[in-house]
Amino acid sequence: MVIGVFILLYIGLGFLIDLIINAEKYPQAPLGVISQALATGHLIPYATFITTGIAIISLWVTYAFYDKLMLLGVEYHEVTATNAKNLLEKQLYNTIEEMQVAAGLKYTPRVFIIEANYMNAFASGYSEKSAMVAITRGLLEKLDRAEIQAVMAHELSHIRHLDIKLTLTASVLANLTLIVIDVLFYGVLFGGGRRGREREGGNWLLIAIVILRYLLPLITVLLMLFLSRTREYMADAGAVELMRDNEPLARALLKIQNDYDGHQSEYADDYRRTPHEQVRREAYIFDPTTAGISPKQASSDFFSTHPNILKRLAAIGFNK
Amino acid sequence: MAVIIAILVIIVLIIGIIVGIYNTLIAMIEAVRNNERQIDIQLDRRYKVFESLINVVKNYMDYERSTLKDVVSLRNQALSAKAQGDTAGAMAAENKISGILSGLNVVFEQYPDLKANQNALQLQEEIVNTENKLAFAKQAYNDSVERYNAKKKSFFQAMIVQMFAGKLDFNFLYWQLGSPEDIKKREDYTVKM
Prior knowledge:
The complex is a heterodimer.
Chain A: H1 2-25, H2 31-40, H3 46-64, H4 66-70, E1 76-79, H5 87-103, E2 110-114, E3 121-125, E4 131-136, H6 137-142, H7 145-160, H8 163-191, H9 200-243, H10 247-262, H11 264-273, H12 309-315
Parallel strand pairs in A: 2-4
Antiparallel strand pairs in A: 1-2, 3-4
Helix pairs in contact in A: 1-2, 1-3, 1-8, 1-9, 3-8, 5-7, 7-9, 7-10, 8-9
Chain B: H1 2-83, H2 87-110, H3 116-153, H4 157-163, H5 165-168, H6 180-187
Helix pairs in contact in B: 1-2, 1-3
């Protein structure tokens, strides 16, 4: 559903560009007529095609290189069934295999360890077949076996519900939408001088672009938040379903929260020093911004990609 | 004319729905069967893993025991040689012990995890992993049986199942403990150390 809104928004934007181009070409025609002509195919909406093409290509690239993209800027290594260096890594791989059996998934995701002290984990990928989970060294070392298993059950639930693809698609479309509206805004701002000022419709378009320039970021952010929050709840529920026990997940979430509370400034530095942290934000099991770690310090519950930890615990029926 | 078309459309729709339900149920039945085999796979895995673990542990323990014996006897040799004033003999025995120990070190370096404590932990992890997988396979099987039963018995689906009883109606048993005594035994089980 949210994806549909994103696609509509994006195509609408392409259409708007067409409208602008054609409004310049045919200064006499009213906007209504032009948009009708575009919609019925009398005028070919080149810009819509081009923007759609760009979207398809970027989605394809994202799907093909999701693992590299999601691990941008961090130091990591892959764990396989045979190359586990110590008991912890072996344990990590084993828990994933166990949850895979419980979930009835046909493929084991690739497993990566991120060399970082903060506690976090995420899943990504295109389908069950090509999926990955990544976990930070801090999480691996600070949680016990059952808790790691709960975290992995959460991540595998993301894979099972195909949230991984959804999140990838949504974030690509959201970013593209913002880029396109930005280009449009500055193009109109600096290149708009030569347009006939006497034209009524042109002004309306200008106003629309200016409004969209400030409205769209807000809309995309809200949509993304809605998406990732509902998905987080679903993954938590999925983890409990697989484990038949809510306690390990609750313990893990509480441990992560406490750990963040204890090392806030340290981890804030770590996150800030890590380039491209933004790409992972929606995918993490624990949103660093809820612990007050954010470059912009916009850490209110309202703008967090994840629900408040107490709400998450309540949703899985765990009351401390 | 319009009535005939309407009736035709309705018939096509109904056939479509029936085909859809039929295919869903077939997929569920196969999922149940696969999950049933998955339990066998895990049982098989457990057998093989535990067999090989036992062998490894046995070999390792034999090795350790014989090494220990060697070291103890050499040590005694060295002590008795020393008591008799045979320094050269004592030195030779001590050197042999060092030889054994360095050999042992080489073995440890080849298998860094072969340290006693680590070894036990690894063994424990392997056992936990194997038993968990088996338990989760049973859980997944029961889940798929539940999904199939719920679908099969729900309204509308139940009618179609009756129509194709031979192909769609199966009575899969949930995995469970057998006899009441068996259940009682496990319920009363406590760890004795």
